[in-house]
Design a protein that fits this description.
The protein has about 200 residues and is mainly alpha-helical. The protein has a domain of about 120 residues. About 60% of the residues lie in helices and about 10% in strands. A two-stranded antiparallel sheet has the order 1-2.
Length: about 200
């Protein structure tokens, strides 16, 4: 083993030993008061419902935005419709343009010279325009499907996150610890729970 790995393992074990060895003893009378305070304190967490994420995802799959309404995130509903509606608009527009150029190209192949692009675009230009609008149409459809799937994922994830306790009584803050074995300072996180 390399020397760095051995030092890291030794420091880690000494840190663990120090953290387990610290015993902030509470006098016997105060332990009883602490237990009463913990038992009397009612923690207000959202009740756990295992079906909530599945319901939210199902509702969003049936009608985009309905899962967000189920999660009571009403402000997200317009964003969902903008995210799905904008690429859908471009899909329809690019499809209409593609059909225009395709119809003009077909009429030229049939021998007619009365299309709207006659004298402006050659047959090669019509083919290139069809390719461009077909690619844009397909890309718009892909973005629409992606926005629809993200709508479902968002509703599912938010329903999962709504079940976590985010009470003000919980806090996690960075802390600085002096490591006595190496003489250096270490950084970590401390989790605190207020009972009153």
């Amino acid at each position: 083993m390399k020397l760095k790995n051995v030092i890291f393992i030794a420091v880690f074990i000494s840190f663990l030993g120090k953290s387990f060895a610290q015993n902030d003893s509470i006098p016997v009378g105060e332990e009883l008061q602490f237990d009463k305070a913990v038992k009397s304190k009612s923690f207000e967490a959202n009740p756990f419902d295992a079906n909530a994420p599945a319901k939210a995802a199902f509702y969003s799959a049936v009608l985009p935005g309905l899962g967000q309404a189920y999660n009571k995130s009403y402000w997200k509903i317009p964003l969902v419709y903008i995210a799905i509606g904008t690429p859908m608009y471009f899909y329809i527009d690019n499809n209409n343009q593609y059909n225009r150029y395709r119809d003009a190209f077909k009429s030229r192949l049939a021998g007619f010279e009365n299309d709207e692009f006659f004298g402006i675009l050659s047959e090669d230009d019509l083919v290139e325009a069809q390719k461009l609008f077909r690619e844009n149409r397909d890309l718009s459809l892909l973005i629409t499907i992606l926005a629809y799937v993200l709508n479902i994922v968002d509703a599912n994830v938010e329903a999962h996150l709504n079940q976590f306790n985010i009470s003000e009584d919980l806090s996690m803050r960075p802390s600085q610890i002096n490591n006595f074995s190496t003489g250096q300072q270490a950084f970590g996180l401390s989790l605190k729970l207020k009972l009153n």
